[in-house]
Amino acid sequence: MRALVAVAAVWPLLVEVKAFRTALVVAGWGG
After folding, report:
1. Digit-coded pLDDT (tens) for 1-31
2. Dihedral through CA 23, CA 29, CA 30, CA 31, nearest 10?
3. Domain extent at residue 12
4. With 0-12 CB in 10 A as exposed, 13-18 as middle and 19+ as buried, what is 4?
5. I need a labelling partner for 1 at 20 to 30 A (CA). Which of 18, 25, 28, 31 fits?
6. How many CB atoms lie within 10 A of CB 21?
7. Which residues 6+ apart lie within 8 Å of 2 measured at CB?
8. What is the C-alpha separation between 1 and 29, in angstroms, rounded?
9. pTM score > 0.90 for this model?
10. What is the DSSP track for 1-31?
11. Ramachandran assignment for 30, one of left (phi > 0), alpha (psi -120 to 50 degrees), beta (any other)
12. Contact between residue 21 and residue 29 where contact means Cβ atoms under 8 Å apart
């Protein structure tokens, strides 16, 4: 149960980082 809470807490951060990196790639600044 605790692991599920940890995943729920971290998941939005992972999604934000992925979206941010995608934006950088689209802008032509990222790998």
Report:
1. 899 999 999 999 999 999 999 999 999 986 5
2. 140
3. 1-31
4. exposed
5. 18
6. 13
7. none
8. 39
9. no
10. -HHHHHHHHHHHHHHHHHHHHHHHHHHT---
11. beta
12. no
How many domains does one find in the chain? Answer: 1
Phi/psi-derived region of residue 28, left when phi > 0, alpha when psi is between -120 and 50, beta in every other case: left
Q: Is the dihedral of CA 10, 12, 14, 16 positive or negative?
A: negative
Cα–Cα distance, 27 to 15 (Å, whole number): 18
Residue 30 pLDDT:
62
Structural contact between residues 30 and 24, judged by C-beta atoms closer than 8 angstroms? yes
